[in-house]
Each structure stands twice: as structure tokens, then as C-alpha cells.
Design goal:
181 residues, mainly alpha, 9 helices, 2 strands, 67% helix
Length: 181
């Protein structure tokens, strides 16, 4: 029997997959907004840079669930940006993403803390040869990064998500196995 949380996830996760490109665009727009504090920019850049990691928590090619780790990371990064000074009330897209973190917490249970720590650690990582420091401090690098994010958003094709409990089991198993302890 499917729990209430799992039922919500089976209804919600396909929407997160469909909106991933738009979510990334909204985040890069917030990254580039002049009023966004530097600490919030770092959170946004870290989350967005994850989309380009060649080795992420769940390989993008895995049917049904391959991009859900990206969707989770963007939501947690948006919440971190809010905690770091971005006005979520003035940005409906970021507010919505950050608000979705409660479902991620409910879905992952005790493993949520490990994912949250992992997302915070992304501020020290790089993808495509770009670190978060490079993106934040260098206008040419940020412009190239912005173009890459917008290119991803345009070319992204949402995978299908079978609304079957086995997909939630696989998703939890990947997070349990891949997140640092």
C-alpha cells in the first residue's frame, strides 16, 4: 500500500521533471540579478553547476529517475539562497522551488540531512572546469555559464516518469548508496 508521502511524490515528481529547464532558467536569472546577495549567488551557482556534473548522484540516463537528483538539488539550493538573503517573496519561482523542499525532506526521511550537506558542499566543487568561485567572481565565466544554463533549458527534454512505487524505491536506493555518510 502506498503511503501518503509516496502518493504525493508519484503525482509531483513528473511535474518537477517537466519544469527542470524552466527552474534552471529562473535560478540563473536570480543569480544574475543585481540585488542577489553574494552568499545567495553562491548557493544558486552551486545548485546550477550540479546540472553539468559528469558524475552526479543518479546518472541522467537512468529511465524515470535520472534527472530527479538534479530537481532535488535545485530545490535545496533555492532554499539555501533564501536562507542566504535572497528575497523569496519577490521571486515566485525561487519561492516555489524552496517550498518544495518539505516534500524532499518527507520523501528522503533521515537521508535528507545527507543530501542537504552534499548540496552545501557543491559550493566547493566544479563542473565543466568552472568552480562556483569562477562563476561568481568572473563576469566572462558567468556569462558563459548563463549561456550554458539557458542552452540546457532550451534543449532539455523531460524524461517520462512511471507513476509506480518501484521508481520511488530505486530513487531512495540511489540516494542511500551514493550520498556520503
Amino acid at each position: 500500500m502506498t503511503s501518503e508521502v509516496d502518493a504525493r511524490c508519484l503525482e509531483t515528481f513528473p511535474n518537477w521533471l517537466r519544469s527542470l529547464g524552466q527552474d534552471a532558467e529562473a535560478m540563473v536569472d536570480a543569480l544574475n540579478a543585481g540585488e542577489t546577495p553574494e552568499a545567495a549567488r553562491r548557493s544558486l551557482a552551486a545548485g546550477l553547476n550540479y546540472v553539468f556534473k559528469s558524475v552526479d548522484l543518479i546518472p541522467d540516463g537512468i529511465d524515470d529517475i535520472g534527472y530527479l537528483d538534479d530537481a532535488f538539488v535545485l530545490r535545496i539550493a533555492a532554499a539555501h539562497a533564501g536562507a542566504n538573503g535572497v528575497d523569496l517573496g519577490a521571486n515566485a519561482a525561487l519561492q516555489s522551488l524552496a517550498g518544495d523542499v518539505d516534500l524532499v525532506k518527507s520523501f528522503l526521511g533521515d537521508d535528507y540531512h545527507r543530501l542537504d550537506v552534499y548540496v552545501q558542499g557543491l559550493k566547493r566543487s566544479a563542473a565543466r572546469g568552472r568552480s562556483v568561485d569562477d562563476i561568481i567572481s568572473g563576469a566572462p565565466v558567468r556569462a558563459e555559464f548563463t549561456a550554458d544554463v539557458k542552452g540546457f533549458a532550451r534543449s532539455y527534454a523531460a524524461p517520462s516518469f512511471g507513476r509506480e512505487e518501484k521508481n520511488l524505491i530505486k530513487l531512495r536506493a540511489f540516494f542511500d548508496a551514493k550520498l556520503p555518510r
